[in-house]
Design a protein that fits this description.
The structure holds two protein chains of two kinds. Chain A is of the alpha/beta class. Chain A has one domain. Chain A is built from 13 helices and 25 strands. In chain A, α3 runs antiparallel to α9, α10 crosses α11 and α11 crosses α13. The two termini of chain A are 35 Å apart. The chains are: A alpha/beta, B alpha/beta. Bound molecules: adenosine-5'-triphosphate and magnesium ion (MG).
Chain lengths: 471, 249
């Protein structure tokens, strides 16, 4: 197949910024702010089991006790008293697109979700604000015994015990302030269970759309891939732009069983009023493979460092990521790896791009424990600054407790080459497109890892950023 | 009216004057050869004609098709029908030869060509250049040998069909067989597109099978001699001594 990844398309931001006016009484929402009453109200609305209400209230307590991080981008513009933590369309979750309210269905149509579902996905969950509005899985995947549902049903369904056993065990509310916030007000998200030996041939996808102004989105994704099983899960996110702060504090917990493989691909494309304080973590059993493919676009501020614990011997992790910071953005992204098993290996390869005054910081934390004999790790980060007013930083941290590990690190910071721009322009390509082409090429390590449709979407986002069309 | 008219052109880089009062006319379909010692300013002239912003025009003018293009950016010049085969082509990771050329054609013409047609044409041109088909799916120039990069330049020229092309030492780095195939590609361009050429070279091999109309000699930023094809042979025999000696006095 001819992968025309770098095709320069005509696209515009209205695809993402597009939104319908909300109709009177269409949505249920809690009051702004964060109080025990609001948390209790959310819990009731969601028909939580009792333990979950306790869990939420304890998390709120932890949230109140913890301090805001003092080491990253400024988040003083985020005031929890102004954030609505729960907004749900009154129609509820549907299993066919026809039953999804017209405006919401059209929004997802524009984002290409039903189309992708028909052509290249095994199942889709579509979340609008706080809850899923659509969920469906292909019959053949269900027959394999794969469970893919919204978190709300998972809490009380057949796998309720399994969910309770894993929920926020990998990312406890005590982990950091926004993990605690998540524990208190989480809603939406997906639960996936792949039984032993089951290989899901085509990806599952959850798409999170935050549409309401001044709201927060706190979806929880819990994926359990059993021994010898195989899954590719895709997560997409977007939101239209508002003048008030929006917040995203999702949580992703991934359990990869013995000799299993999980690939988790994300394109986050938030509007530039978004505070994206997201936590993602995976744990690998013996011989397991965890692959992250991560594209971070948009948001005003991001804190995002997917973490992988290589617990089992011979487990392996690959992290491939790209971050694009444009005007008014401060994106602090990276990856964390903890090696505890023997002969574990990890490979981090990231690219970051900054433009028009954007700030992009790559933060990696590599820990190799004493018992992780013969571990191998490599961290490589390349940054491209498109002008003199933008910033790129690399902050690698390493904590190596054994002499028997093989660790490599490489960081490169560069500028776009005038000669390369001239070369492309001499072929009739405009300066803007030439630069976009060079940046797409720079991002190629990530787009190569994505299924074609998503690679195209990512390229479109790069083109948009390059044209400065994202406000 | 000549296709390309260069009048009293002077050029500086970082404030250092490099080209002085260059005058040169190139007519439609004409082939001109530009020779001169290393560092004379040949590539500088090519870059200035193509619109490289690193070079500053300190005087004179450039007309292409009767229009003053001095202020135009390189992409506009390419759209008007100019092309340059670079002395050192750049590597462009992430975009294949095939999709790059297709993209360039559609930007240049404003139309999308049908993929099937495009593929046929690309295959035919690669055949002329004896260029391994597999290269169309490789990233442009990435990891190409010196000779392969030059072939890729000529391939782009054939596909983009300019009215005027500057070939800056396209022959250097090519083996004997490659010189022959590349020169067959250039011949194809001369014949079928009636394309004009400014061939910058140090060697006469590439010129053997090509029809040459005029020859110019550039020494220390000035054109010191103009002639016909015979001048190429004279330089081949005696070098640039005659002009550099005179300069030295
Ligand atoms: N970008 C630049 N910055 C500084 N000096 C330059 C630049 N480009 C050219 N020059 C200088 O201008 C002079 C002419 O260079 P140019 O590359 O045009 O020579 P040339 O005739 O093409 O030589 P060659 O036969 O070696 O390719 C040289 O002295 C060179 O060092
Ligand atoms: Mg030169």
């Amino acid at each position: 197949m001819d992968r025309e990844r770098s095709e320069v398309n005509d696209i515009d931001r209205s695809l993402y910024d597009f939104r319908y006016e909300e109709k009177e009484g269409e949505f249920y929402r809690v009051k702004e702010g964060l109080t025990p009453d609001i948390v209790t109200e959310i819990s009731k609305e969601k028909h939580d089991p009792d333990w979950m209400l306790d869990f939420r209230l304890k998390s709120l307590q932890i949230y109140n006790d913890l301090k805001v991080p003092d080491w990253g981008p400024d988040i003083s513009g985020l005031n929890m008293d102004d954030i609505v933590t729960y907004v749900r369309h009154k129609t509820g979750m549907q299993a066919t697109w026809e039953d999804v309210p017209e405006d919401i269905k059209n929004t997802f149509e524009r984002l290409g979700i039903p189309e992708a579902e028909r052509t290249s996905l095994a199942g889709v969950g579509a979340q609008y604000d706080s809850e899923l509005v659509y969920h469906n899985v292909r019959e053949e995947v269900l027959e394999q015994g794969v469970i893919y549902t919204d978190m709300e049903s998972a809490l009380t369904g057949e796998y309720a015990d399994m969910v309770r056993e894993h929920f926020m065990k990998l990312v406890p509310p005590t982990d950091h302030k926004f993990a605690a916030l998540h524990g208190a007000v989480w809603s939406g998200g997906s639960f996936v269970y792949v039984p032993p030996g089951v290989k899901v041939d085509i990806p599952l996808q959850s798409y999170f759309r935050l549409n309401a102004a001044g709201a927060g989105q706190f979806e929880h994704t819990l994926i359990i891939v059993s021994e010898d099983a195989d899954l590719h899960f895709i997560e997409g996110c977007s939101a239209p732009k508002y003048n008030v702060a929006n917040l995203h504090a999702g949580c992703v917990e991934l359990f990869v069983g013995k000799n299993a493989r999980l690939r988790y691909s994300t394109i986050e494309n938030w509007s530039k009023n978004m505070y994206n304080l997201n936590t993602k973590r995976a744990i690998c059993e013996e011989g397991a493979t965890m692959e992250w493919v991560s594209g971070s676009f948009g948001s005003h501020v991001s804190y995002l460092y997917p973490m992988t614990i290589l617990k089992g011997n011979d487990s392996h992790c690959e992290f491939t990521g790209i971050t694009f910071a444009g005007a008014g953005q401060n994106l602090d992204t990276g990856a964390k790896i903890v090696h505890t098993g023997e002969r574990t290996s990890s490979f981090i390869n990231t690219k970051s791009i900054s433009k028009s005054g954007g700030e992009s910081t790559f933060r990696s934390a590599l820990t190799i424990k004493e018992k992780a004999k013969d571990a191998k790790a490599s961290v490589s980060c390349a940054s491209l600054m498109l002008d003199d007013i933008s910033r790129s930083d690399t902050i690698p941290a390493m904590d190596i407790r054994t002499n028997e590990a093989d660790v490599g690190h490489e960081a490169k910071i560069g500028r776009i080459s005038d000669d390369a721009v001239f070369y492309l322009m001499s072929r009739g390509i405009s300066e803007e497109d030439a630069k976009a082409m060079i940046v797409s090429g720079f991002a190629d390590n990530v787009s190569k890892e994505l299924p074609l449709e998503y690679a195209v979407e990512m390229n479109n986002l790069i083109q948009l950023e390059m044209k400065g069309a994202i406000g | 009216m000549a296709l390309l008219e260069i009048r009293d052109l002077s050029v500086a880089v970082d404030g250092n004057p490099i080209l002085k009062n260059i005058n040169l006319n190139i007519g439609k379909g004409e082939t001109h050869v530009l020779m001169g010692p290393n560092g004379a300013g040949k590539s500088t002239l090519g870059n200035v004609l193509m619109g490289n912003p690193a070079y500053e025009i300190t005087g004179g003018s450039i007309y292409f098709n009767g229009l003053d293009i001095k202020e135009e950016t390189a992409d506009k010049r390419a759209k008007a029908g100019m092309f340059m085969s670079f002395q050192n082509p750049l590597e462009v990771p992430g975009i294949t030869v095939s999709s790059f050329i297709r993209n360039a054609i559609s930007q240049k013409t404003g139309e999308k060509i049908k993929f099937s047609e495009y593929r046929k044409e690309l295959a035919a041109d690669m055949e002329i250049l004896d260029f391994d088909k597999a290269y169309k799916d490789r990233d442009l120039n990435v990891g190409f040998s010196g000779g392969e990069k030059k072939k890729a330049e000529i391939l782009q020229m054939l596909m983009l069909k300019p009215k005027f092309a500057i070939l800056d030492e396209t022959d250097s780095g090519l083996d004997v067989d490659a010189v022959r195939t590349v020169s067959a590609g250039i011949e194809e361009y001369q014949k079928h597109e009636d394309g004009a050429l400014l061939i910058i070279t140090h060697s006469t091999k590439i010129l053997e099978s090509l029809h040459v109309d005029y020859t110019h000699v550039l020494v220390k930023g000035e054109i010191v001699a103009d002639g016909d094809a015979a001048l190429v042979d004279e330089i081949n025999d005696n070098g640039f001594e005659k002009w550099t000696e005179r300069e030295a006095k």
